[in-house]
Amino acid sequence: MTKIAVILGSVRPNRAGASVAEWIASRANEAEGVQAEVLDLASFNLPIFAEELPPMAAPAKDPAAVAWNEALAGFDAFIIVSPEYNHSVPGSLKNAIDFITPSVLANRAIGLVGYSYSAGHRQIEHLRAILANFTTGVVGAQVNLHLATDFSGGAFAPAAFHDGEAASLVQALVAQDKALSTLR
Ligand SMILES: Cc1cc2nc3c(=O)[nH]c(=O)nc-3n(C[C@H](O)[C@H](O)[C@H](O)COP(=O)(O)O)c2cc1C
């Protein structure tokens, strides 16, 4: 069984990301041997990172950060759902990543889903660079959603081919998890 947390990176009210996260979680749950659920960053109320020590020196002490790391520790793999804010990831998501104790992500598979008016490519590339500071297995398969064509009147209505992308992403994640589980 691969337990996947779908991390919802936007914390705004009425965020488009909520439907995207529910969609990818439900696509993942269609795969054999997968149990996926949404982990909503907004529910953790993380402060701006202001710890005395960096997480690679000592786990963050803020109670919200402790809860965040404990929640992550219960999963084998992650799908990060990120909007594009000013050509990158939203501050909420980068801040949450800054709080992560490296061992919590060690040898975990990660998949990326982006959405924006540029189909989410920029923040996904930035996430790949950010996550390179951890020892993870970020899969090459990804899902790129466009706010102009995959949303209709504000409602999420992904083009049919994204189901195939989602299936490929989940398949890659499960394979990566199987390989990495031998190292954990
Ligand atoms: C601070 C901010 C910056 C944004 N910058 C970009 C951008 O650089 N490129 C883009 O395509 N959309 C940009 N947008 C539009 C977002 O992609 C759009 O609002 C999307 O719905 C945000 O995701 P969310 O609703 O889940 O928070 C920006 C939105 C915000 C709030």
UniProtKB/TrEMBL annotation:
Name by which UniProt lists this protein: FMN reductase
SUPFAM superfamilies on file: Flavoproteins
One GO CC term, this protein: cytosol
Segments forming domain NADPH-dependent FMN reductase-like: 2-149
GO-annotated molecular function: FMN binding; oxidoreductase activity
Domain of life: Bacteria
Coiled coil regions in record: none
Upper classification of the organism: Bacteria, Bacillati, Actinomycetota, Actinomycetes, Actinomycetales
